Amino acid sequence: MNSKDNTVADFQACTGIEDVGLAFKYLEDHQWNLIDAVNSAMKNDNIVDINYKGDDISIISPSQATTSLNNIYSANSSSSHKVNPLINTSSLTKNTNNMGPKILIFNITYKDKTSVIKVLESQTVGKLKEYIEERFKIPTKEIYLSGWYNNLKVFNYTILSSLSLPIENNLQLSKLSHMTSGKIPSSNESQSKRLYTLYIKNCWKDQKYTLQMPGDKTIKELKDTFAEMSSIPTKDQEWIGFPFEIISDSVTLNKTGINFPTQDFEVFNKASDSNLLSHTSNGRSSVDEDEPMMIAHLPPPTSSKIFSNIHETQEEGEGDEEFLDSSDNFGVFDAPCSSFKLSNQQPLILPNTIDVVEGQIHFVNQFELRYGKTHPQFFIGTMQHALDASCNLPILERKLLVVYLHHEKSILSNIFISLNLCSETVINYLNANFILWPWDVTHTSNKELFLRITTIKFGKILENTLKTTNVNEYPCLIVFQKCRGQFDILNIFKGSTCLEDLMTTLIHSVDMFRNNQQSSLQEEMERDTRENIKREQDEAYRLSLETDKAKKIARVKEIEQEQLIQKLKEEEDEFKMKEKEAIKMSLADSLPEEPPKDCVSPVTTIKIRCINQSKTFQRRFLASTKLEILLNYIASLGFDQKEYSYMTYWPTFDISQLNPNETLKTHNLYPQVSLTITERVE
Length: 682
Fold this sequence. Notes:
Blueprint: H1 3-15, H2 20-29, H3 34-42, E1 49-53, E2 56-60, H4 62-76, H5 90-97, E3 103-110, E4 113-120, H6 125-136, E5 143-146, E6 168-175, E7 195-202, E8 207-214, H7 219-229, E9 237-240, E10 262-269, H8 286-289, H9 305-313, H10 320-324, H11 356-371, H12 383-389, E11 400-406, H13 413-421, H14 424-433, E12 434-440, H15 444-458, H16 461-467, E13 476-483, E14 486-493, H17 499-590, E15 603-610, E16 615-622, H18 627-636, E17 644-648, E18 672-679
Parallel strand pairs: 3-6, 7-10, 11-12, 15-18
Antiparallel strand pairs: 1-2, 3-4, 5-6, 7-8, 9-10, 11-13, 13-14, 15-16, 17-18
Helix pairs in contact: 1-2, 1-3, 14-17, 17-18
C-alpha cells in the first residue's frame, strides 16, 4: 500500500466516510494534508463528535448523541437528583459540530527501530507513553523521550495541545535504567544541571508520588514541595532514602549523593502514629461519594435581586434538586457559557488530588470543556509561584492575588461563571490587574489540601473565612494584598454578587491597592532615606574611627621609631665608650715605665692641662723617648688626637702634627714642657 492509500485509510478511519471518491475529493482539495482534510470533513452536519479510546476512533452522529442523552435522562430519572426534562440539546449539537480534533503523528525511534504512533492532541504525554509501553513493552516509568519540538520540557500531565507541536514529530526513546552517562540528554540543559526523577512513598497515607526536580534545588525546597502535595508539614517530614545523614536542609540534591536519574524515598509523619491514618487510599468522604448533581440552564438574572431570591427560595437543609424543580421563578434557556452537567462529567479537580499543578491543569481543561475558552487567564502553578508573580514583586510591579474557589454543589456556580466570571469586562479587568489562582473545593480531600497550602502561606485567616461560608455561597473570589510585609484579605466576592457589584468592588479594590501601594512606596522611600542617612552616619563614624586608629598607630610607630633610634644611639655611644676604654687600656699597657726621679739619663717633664675638664696630668719621660710614646700617653688619658689638639705654650704649635718617630729632645720638648688639650674645631 502506497503513501496515498495509507492517507485515504487514515482519513476514512477518522471521519467514517466510506465513499472512497468523496475521501479522495477532500484530500485533493487540501493538497493531501490529512489534518486539514479531516477538519474540513468534521464541519459536515452529519458529524457531531469524535470519541476515542486508545488508538480506536469512533464517530457519533447527532441521532446517536440524542439517543445517548435520552438514555442518560432515563438512567437518572429514578435517582435522588431531579432533572428538568426541558433541557435544550441544540446547543450540544451546535457546539460539537465545529469540533475537529487534531491528530499528531509521532515517529518513535528505539534501538534503530522506528514505530509510528498517532495520538489526538487532547491527550497527555503520559497517555502517549502508555501507547509506547504497549508498542515497545517498556514500563511507563522507564520511558524517556527526547527530541521534542523547540526543545520543550514536558511532564506526564502535559497536554499535547498546549505544546503547539507540528503534525509530525520525531522522538528518540531511551530507557532510564540503561542510561549510564549520569545525565539525561537535553540540548537546552547545561552539563552541570541534572533533572532527578524522585519516586516518593507517603508511608502515612500509603500513597505514591513521582516528582521531577533539578539538582540545584535544596532539600528545603523538596520538602516544601512535598508539603503542598501531601498532608505532612515540612517540619514533621522524616525522609528515608538518602545515602547518608543530611545535616542541613540547604544542601542541594546534587550534593546529597542520591542516585541519578531516579531515586526512591519513603516519607513518614513524625507528628502522627503511622498506624493510624486519617485518610486511606480506599477511603473517601461522604462528599466524594455523592453523585454529581444535574443542573439545568437558568435564565440570566436582570438585577442583583434575583441572586438574593435564590437563597430565599432554598430553605436551610433543602437539597439542590428542590431548587431546580422550582419552575415558577425560572425558565429553561441556553446559558451563554455552559450547557449542563451530566452524571458522567468529570469534576474540575479530581478527588484526592495531590499535585497542585496537575489539578489546576485538569481544572482549566474541564472549565473550558464546560464553559468555553472565553474566561480569565488562570495562573497555573503552586501558591508560592502565584505569590511570587503578584504580591512578592517589587512594590511598583505588584498585582493583587485573587483566589477563585469553585464548588460543584452550589446552585450559583453556573450562574456566577456565565454572567460574571466569563463577562468580557470582568475578563479584561482581571487579566490587567490581578493574578487569578483557581481551585475546586467540592471534595473534602481537595479542600483540606487547599487549607494546608494556604495555612502555610497566610496563617489561619483564610481557614476561618471558609468555615463561615456555606456551600450555596460559592463560588468565591478572595482578593489578597501584601501590605507592610503581611498578607491581608482585601475583599471577598461570593456567588450571589451581581456583575455590577462585582466590577464596582473590583475597581474599588484596585483603587485601595493603589493607595496602599503609594503609601507603602512612600514609607519605603522614607525608610530608605532614613537608612541612607544612618548608613552615611555609620560610614562617617567608621571613617573617623579608622582615622583615629591610623593616627594612633602612626604615633605608636613614631614613638617606637624614636625609642629605637635612641636605643641604637645609646648602644653606639656605649660601644664607642667601650672601644675608647679598650684603646686607652691598650695604649696604657704599651707605655714604658716612668723613669724614677734619681734617673741619671736626661729626663723631660711633661705637664698636661685640659681646659674643658680642668684636669692636670704630669709624667716624666726620657729625653730619648720618641714623640709617638708621648702621643699614646695623652690618648690613654682619653684625649684622642682626632678629637683634641695638643698645643704648646710658646712657641704655640700642635705636637700631634710633628714627626712621631723623632725623640722629644729633637722636637725641643726638653727638659720641661706644658701642653694644653683643646677640642678640635671642624
